[in-house]
Fold these 2 entries.
Entry 1:
Amino acid sequence: MLGPPGAGKGTQASRLARHYGVPKVSTGDILREAAAAGTALGLEAKARIDQGHLVSDDVAIAIVRERLGRQDVAFGFILDGFPRTVDQAVALDDMMRERSPLTVLHLVVPVDVLVGRLHQRRICSVCGTNADPTKAETVCAVCGGALVTRADDDEQVVRNRLQIYEDRTAPLVEYYRGRPTFFSIDGNQPPDAVAAAMQGALASAMAVGQTGSPR
Ligand code: AMP
């Protein structure tokens, strides 16, 4: 899943993972969990995350390499938040050499919509699920945990993250665009419509045998 902060990657990645019965692998979730657990990795990452900076390529790549080495991703996985730099994309291609090709879903959303979404966003402090922005929920619909604002959704940090996206991650669109398994999806539609478009893109990638069939 490729797209700027607030494009809906996390929400849509969870939906796709449920739909296809495969794990969602989110580097943001893994880093936030490590920060909450107070591990050395987490504490080092927390300051960078809270300011909207990327963690180093070495750290991000090591996390994904370890996660994709586990058995539960043998039949496929949804990657959310990785790769974010060209060096990460090159490392991912290397990790995928013995597997079916990646399908790249690029979520396109206008900047003013992204800023509004990030400003409103609330996540569960326990399980990390995004709250439904159309409902005035006070606790998480999944686990009942308290809803909180992410420290990195602060207005100045959001601007920082969008700039970093433009500088470091947007070049990945050109990196992947020429591949038959690259799809641009309009992310400025209701979530059900975005999910349907993504499933359509994945179905066409599978139909031409470009990517592995999920279980
Ligand atoms: P996300 O939940 O995907 O918005 O990620 C939250 C934060 O975690 C980012 O702003 C970065 O600080 C860090 N992060 C997540 N994934 C990566 C990655 N692939 N490379 C570098 N930093 C990352």
Entry 2:
Amino acid sequence: MTQTVSRPAAGAQKPPLPLDVEAIRADFPILTRTVRDGKRLVYLDSGATSQKPRSVLDAERDFYENHNAAPHRGAHQLAEEATGLYEGARARIAEFISAAVEEVVFTRNTTDAINTVAYALSNAATAKEPSFRRYAVGQGDEIVVTEMEHHANLVPWQQLCERTGATLRWLGLTDDGRLDLSDLGTVVNERTRLVAVTQQSNILGTINPLEPIVARAREVGALVLVDGAQSVPHQPVDVATLGADFLVFSGHKMLGPTGVGVLWGRYEVLDALPPFMTGGSMIEVVRMEGSTFMPPPQRFEAGVPMTAQVVGLGAAVDYLQALGMDRVQAHEEALTGYALEQLQAIPGVTVIGPPDTVARGGAISFTVEGIHPHDVGQVLDDLGIAVRVGHHCAWPVVRRYGVPATTRATFYVHTGYDDVDTLVEGVRAAQRFFGVTPEEATA
Ligand code: PMP
């Protein structure tokens, strides 16, 4: 059990923030509204979904107002323009993660991207086309995940194992919220076909050391899928350095629209996988007797795609690139250090996850002794502070640390020290409201 003892902060450290919070806030229309009877919106739930800057909203509106058509179809000017915008966004998103354009597949979100890979691996076993059977998963094979995964990177692998007779294995967690790699050498072994691991935990904030995991997977010839849902929006991520086979992430968590995500795959691997969804746009030749499929990425983009959303995600990437991902990361690190210090100085508050900023991102989960997280969330909401409460779609994690749920604050480019101060005041207000004063909490 992680029961990091709350201790007083040794003086509030507020290093200058790398991003101009006031200027950035002006770009987000939603941040001008008030909530709960005129209170300023303190949005600390970007980990669930991020707010959208005006440039992203404008890009979507402009698409519908001026260019709307189905891409890759139609012999008319609008179709040509829609195709250009869709493929142009693909090129910018590919560049954002240093990938080749044909390695970027658009999906609905991270969940959809992971399911696309999981179904491709089980479909591979029965594929008629021999070149699609290379990565087939079957009886006797093993899939490795970690105890830290979001349900999106756990349940699809459980289901893959049920479909194929493969076995699911996992790496556990240490008491301070990190991956326990002590049995990496046995958990990842010659039977392992794929290792699926998150780069940054949505609940603990932990940034995982992927290098030893990728190196071990390579030794045994296993594929590696990295869940980048919480890393790609917050730090520079480059697929060449990552060394994995797949990287998946969601547009809506990185200032982009809902309904669009990315499956990046190494071309050689994508090219050897059968499709999951089939239908229009992904076929080469269709006859009543059977069909052949396009090469990646089209093989994995069946039907008319989420075109306006892709264009919006392109604008989100432009916005993040203009800020600079190094600065985005440094900004969140400064806020996280300050918030950890302030929260852990409140008697009765326990941070679930790494207690300092070493290899850690801006997702802070905590419990308040004597108050259920849902009640903490309600008091914070009354003060205009939006946080998430619950198991955060990572049920095994809260179980591992022996808590029913946590309160989670997550930061992004528009977050400032004032937001953190309001949160800290809100937690103290919750303690007062429930009659759990700091003194009582530590008694
Ligand atoms: N993985 C992680 C680490 C996440 O935080 C999330 C979203 N909370 C997901 C996967 C799933 O993302 P989506 O719901 O956008 O598919």
